[in-house]
Amino acid sequence: MRGTDEALIVIDVQNDFCPGGALAVAGGDAIIPRINALMAEFSCVVLTQDWHPADHASFAANHPGAAPFSLTEMPYGPQVLWPTHCVQSTAGAAFHSALHTDPAHLVIRKGFHAGIDSYSAFFENDKTTATGLHGYLAERGVKTLTLVGLATDYCVAYSALDAAKLGYRVTLVEGACRAIDLNGSLAEARKSTLAAGVVWQA
Ligand code: VGL
Ligand code: ZN
User: Fold this and answer.
1) Percent of the chain beyond pLDDT 70?
2) Is the peptide bond before 187 cis (omega within 30 degrees of 0)?
3) What pLDDT, in 10s, does the model give residues 178-190?
4) Which of 110, 117, 162, 177 is flagged as catalytic?
5) Annotated catalytic residue within 44, 155, 162, 177
6) pLDDT of residue 141
7) Which of the residues 32, 81, 103, 184 has the least number of beta carbons within 10 Å of its own beta carbon?
8) Is pTM, for the whole model, over 0.85?
9) Helix, strand, or coil (residue 19)
10) Considering only CA atoms, which residue is closest to atom 6 of ligand 1?
């Protein structure tokens, strides 16, 4: 068992990011047994859930003429336009049925503001709107984080980067994550998180 100052953060293991989903990540469901096993080691387990309204600005379908996976400019910077995914209350937004959700102490939802995407579990993509996760972990005395889930190069990496900036010791377990890898995003995510002090573990 890990110490009470450690938490496992399980990022977005939802149907839409698994094979058959709207924004399927190759092998997304293959990581679930390892994540379930890891949960038993931690006295603090947090799940995140991508949770968008249907009119979310990150959906290509809400930008007439825009193709999925193209880039647009938002007031807060560049934004990938995604296929419609993880719409609140739909089956695609539900956790994968193989994921153990009972061990979780907190489920943090993100991406529910129509105008701002939120890759990170800590801050939305404007880099200032907080999700509240940092306050929760701080109040529980958590200082060391292990990150797993989907997708390595988006929500996991952005969460790891913000966590490192907030002063947590951060390990990303690569074998318990899977990547989208869009235009070199995985290499870029590795580079930026390593530079911030995130440890990548196989
Ligand atoms: C994610 C793209 C859009 C993720 C969420 O969970 O990595 N990626 N929304
Ligand atoms: Zn999303």
Assistant:
1) 100
2) no
3) 999 999 999 999 9
4) 110
5) 155
6) 98
7) 184
8) yes
9) coil
10) 155
**Catalytic (active site) residue 155:** yes
Each residue's pLDDT tens digit, 60-71:
999 999 999 999
CB 6, CB 145: distance < 8 Å: yes
- For the chain, the first-to-last Cα distance in angstroms comes to 20
Is 29 an active-site residue?
Answer: no
At 27-57, the pLDDT tens digits run 999 999 999 999 999 999 999 999 999 999 9
> CB of 6 within 8 A of CB of 42?
yes
- What DSSP character marks residue 14? B
Contact between 155 and 11 under an 8 Å Cβ cutoff? The reply is yes
- The preferred substitution site among 150, 182, 183 for testing ligand 1, maximizing ligand atoms within 8 Å of CB, is 150
User: C-alpha distances in angstroms, 179 versus 12, 36, 39, 199?
Assistant: 12, 19, 21, 17
Residues in the chain: 202
> What atom of ligand 1 comes closest to residue 158's alpha carbon?
7
- Tokens 């988006």 belong to 154
State which CATH number among 3.30.70.100, 3.40.50.150, 3.40.50.960, 3.40.50.850 fits the domain covering 6-201.
3.40.50.850
Hey, how many other C-beta atoms are within 10 angstroms of the C-beta on 98? Answer: 12
